[in-house]
Amino acid sequence: FGYELVPPFNPYRNSLSYMLASYVVPYVGLLGYVGTNPKLIGYVSKRLLVGLMGVEAGQDAVIREYLYERAAKVVHPYNHTVAEFTIRISELRNRLARCGIKDEGIIVPPFLGAENRTERNVLSADYNSLSYSRTPPEILRIVYGTGSECVPGGFFPKGGNGRIARRFLDKP
């Protein structure tokens, strides 16, 4: 929101806070899977990825629907609505990833809605209702919270430990 929340946001305050905190991660993973799919070779790898995408998409849809049903509800003690929280989280992920709009809150202006016809955004997607995709550097910039795939922080204060993440961390 451009300022420190007082008191600090507590994801365990209540069910709504927990679902807002849960909104932060699944969608990022889903877009990473979508971005990875074209690079995979072989049936077994693609089958595993599609299985993971299905679970991740389901989780994201349940979270987004729960939040959409409460879009106008004020999140106490912050005096911001659920919709505002999702919009700000999505804007932050877009800003950190440095890739334009690939993430949207649960309510969007019609020009960002599916086929430019809707403001409801339970299944976030592009104009053609296709999932956005993210590259590994975009994902690392978000989960590190630094806006750099080479500077760890956020969910991974020591950096990711996979081959791709290590490759970026080893850059001078």
Descriptive account of the structure:
The chain folds into two domains: 15-133, no CATH class; 135-171, no CATH class. Strands 1-2 form a two-stranded antiparallel ribbon. It has helices spanning 15-22, 26-36, 43-69, 82-97, 136-144, 163-169; strands spanning 74-75, 80-81. It is globular and about 45 Å long. With 172 residues, it is mainly alpha-helical. The model has no long low-confidence stretch (mean pLDDT 90). The protein is built from six helices and two strands; from the N terminus they run αααββααα. The two termini are 33 Å apart. This is Desiccation-related protein PCC13-62. It holds the Pfam family Ferritin_2. Keywords: Membrane, Transmembrane, Transmembrane helix.
